[in-house]
Structures are given as structure tokens and as C-alpha cells.
Amino acid sequence: MARAEPPAATFERRVLRSAAEHHYLRVRLELPDGGARPSVAQFKQLVVSALRELHGEVGAALPVDVLIYEEKTLSAILRVISSGLVKLWSALTLLGFYQNRRCAFRVLQTSPFLLALSGNSRELVLD
Amino acid sequence: MAGFADLNLPQGLDKKSLQSLLEAAAHLGYSAVALNHVVDFKEKKQEIVKPVSPSELFPSLPIVQGTSKRIKVLTRLTLIVSDPSHCNLLRSTSANIRLYDIIAVFPKTEKLFHIACTTLDVDLVCINVTEKLPFYFRRPPVNMAIDRGIYFELLYTHAIKDSTMRRYTISNAISLMQICKGKNIVISSAAERPLELRGPYDVANLGLLFGLSESEAKAAVSTNCRATMLHGETRKSACGVVYTVKKPRKVEEEEATLPACKKAKTQA
């Protein structure tokens, strides 16, 4: 029995899953005036300790890289695997102290593409 | 799109630190904040004072980052109730209570939580985040509160300060989410210093940790806050609030030019 030809598909279904392996975060550490500024190694240590504090050893084992760290402005670009973005971000949010002094991480931008961090539309001045 | 809001900044601070707190909030992108006046009935001689008017306190409010508008400052009253008799105050039409934009209650017992969710005329019900929950949430009052448009408030500053409180914050939040399924949640700060404030997107990400979905987490800092403010506004009016926005005229001009264009084509 000849099967009726299915009508030509008028649409096709495409599923795009975010295939990006990493996410990039541009962060700035805010410290009260006059405090000691962390070096690169200390900064990485701070990020890992924040992860350990909130998510334990599993969190501390999360692959996080500090791509750029500028000691003068205390800003950095972090790279993390996409599945760990929420963990890293929440750990940074809930970090409140650096060397027993108050501090705050400001996450300025996040993106799956490093190039997107080259500009920030929120810093543009509106007329 | 509703802007971001933080409905809990403590009012008891001095003017200078409040000003710096407002500036930090505006810089982080919050378009509205509420100054919280707390009344604890356990302590003697607590009376409800008139709300300080924000325009009197700050002659010029900071401009919200990314917009050209100034930050909106509301007033909020939080009543800590530990005895059913305290609720009488809310039922009576006290003149001073009506002056506040938002009214919240902090119930200490299960019975009071039930009363707050089902009968009291409030906008927010605060959830205890600093100690183990003294009672379990039950479905009927929570569902009733969702139907009535009352929101549940979670605070995150305690989670930044102390690791034990962080545990309680997350565990209490998760047990609330099991009952309310992520609906009607507002996350706010109660920050006393600018360094305790977090940006709205950070807070939304924190909502994921509490068991909210991405859209619910974002709603917890934006649309739910707006709904709370509007709920508070309806208390002052007879039945409701309607906002109208003037439609931009540009659309009409485009429509007018389009037929002319078509005309030219047929002629040619």
C-alpha cells in the first residue's frame, strides 16, 4: 500500500543548546578605603575560599581561572565552566569579608563570549 | 518592564550613611527602594510614628545608573507581632499606619502567620532567616496569601554576614519554596552599609540558590516588588489603581506615510 506522501514540511525544528563551554565574568572587588589589596595569588585564593565556604570541597574543585587581574582597580575577568556559573556567582555574592574586613564582589558583566566583555553599554553616558 | 527594587533599607541610620546607601543602590541599578521602620511590640513604649518624608530628608536623590530618572524612595512599616492582640492595631484604621506606602508583618508563631496570610491587610509577610523556623509552613495559609496578592519577603544580608545564618536563610527559603512553588517571593537586602548591598542580577542569581527558577528569581527583585508597591497603593484608594501611559505619537505618523508610499507605486 502506497503511503500518502507527507506534506512538505513548512517548518523545521531546530534545537540550539548553549554549547559554550565556558562563561566569563567581569568582576570588581570593593574594599573599604585603606585596606590591604590582594595580589593575583591572593585574589584567586579569595575566590576559591568563597567557593569553599558556600559549596564545600566540590565548589572549591570547580575549574575557575583568573584571566586578567588588575590590582590597581581590583577588577578581574574570571572564566568558569558553564555548569558552574551559578555556583561561582552565588559564592561571590555571598562573600562578605576579606581578611576580617568587609568587602563586596560586584559582578559587572557575564557572558559566554569573552569578546562581549570588551565593552559595557551600561557605562555609556546617556544624554 | 518593571525596574529593580529593594524594599528594605533600615531607617534607623543617620542621614549620612543613609545617603551613601541610597547612592550605592542607585549605582547598582535599583530604581526604587523602601525605607523600613520597624516596630517591635515586645519592647515597651513602641509607637507608630509618622513616616519621614524622603523628599524632606534628601533634597536631591541620586540618579539610577543606566537611566535618566531619579531613584524612587518609599516608606515601609514592619510590625513584629508575637501576640494576636498586636494585630488589632492593623485592623483599626490608625491614621499613622495609612501614611506608609508598604506595610509588612513579621509573624513569630504559626497562628500569627496564619492570621497574617489570611486576614490582615498587609503587603508583605517577612520570613525569619536568622534562626531555625519555629513552625512549618502549611499550604492553606500560603495559598490564601498568594490569592490575596500578599508577598513573602526573604532577606539576604544576614547570609553575607554570618555562615550559620547563611545556612538558616537557605534552608528556610527552600522549605518555603516547597510550599509556595516559587510564587510571590520578594528578595530584599536589609543592608546597613553599602558593602552589604548586592546588585539586582546578583540577587536574582541568589534566588536560584533558594530554589527559584530563573524567571521567578528575576521576578523576585523586579515585578514582584512592583506588585507589592501597587498592592500598598490600593490600600489608600477605594478599590484600585490604574496607571495610564501616553502613547507615543510617532507610530501614527508612520501609518500616515505608508499609504502615500503605496499610492506612488500604483501610479508608476
Automatic annotation (TrEMBL), chain A:
GO terms for biological process: tRNA processing. Keywords: tRNA processing. InterPro entries: Pop5/Rpp14/Rnp2-like, Rnp2-like_sf. It comes from the Eukaryota. Pfam families: RNase_P_Rpp14 (PF01900). One of its GO terms (cellular component) is ribonucleoprotein complex. Belongs to the eukaryotic/archaeal RNase P protein component 2 family. This is Ribonuclease P protein subunit p14. It comes from Grus japonensis (Japanese crane). The lineage of its organism: Eukaryota, Metazoa, Chordata, Craniata, Vertebrata.
TrEMBL record, chain B:
It comes from the Eukaryota. Keywords: Acetylation, Nucleus, Phosphoprotein, rRNA processing, tRNA processing. Its main location: nucleus. GO terms for biological process: rRNA processing; tRNA processing. It is found in: Nucleus, Nucleolus. GO terms for cellular component: nucleolus. Pfam families: RNase_P_p30. Component of ribonuclease P, a ribonucleoprotein complex that generates mature tRNA molecules by cleaving their 5'-ends. Also a component of the MRP ribonuclease complex, which cleaves pre-rRNA sequences. PANTHER family: RIBONUCLEASE P PROTEIN SUBUNIT P30 (PTHR13031:SF0), RIBONUCLEASE P SUBUNIT P30 (PTHR13031). Belongs to the eukaryotic/archaeal RNase P protein component 3 family. Component of nuclear RNase P and RNase MRP ribonucleoproteins. RNase P consists of a catalytic RNA moiety and about 10 protein subunits; POP1, POP4, POP5, POP7, RPP14, RPP21, RPP25, RPP30, RPP38 and RPP40. Within the RNase P complex, POP1, POP7 and RPP25 form the 'finger' subcomplex, POP5, RPP14, RPP40 and homodimeric RPP30 form the 'palm' subcomplex, and RPP21, POP4 and RPP38 form the 'wrist' subcomplex. All subunits of the RNase P complex interact with the catalytic RNA. Several subunits of RNase P are also part of the RNase MRP complex. This is Ribonuclease P protein subunit p30. It comes from Grus japonensis (Japanese crane).
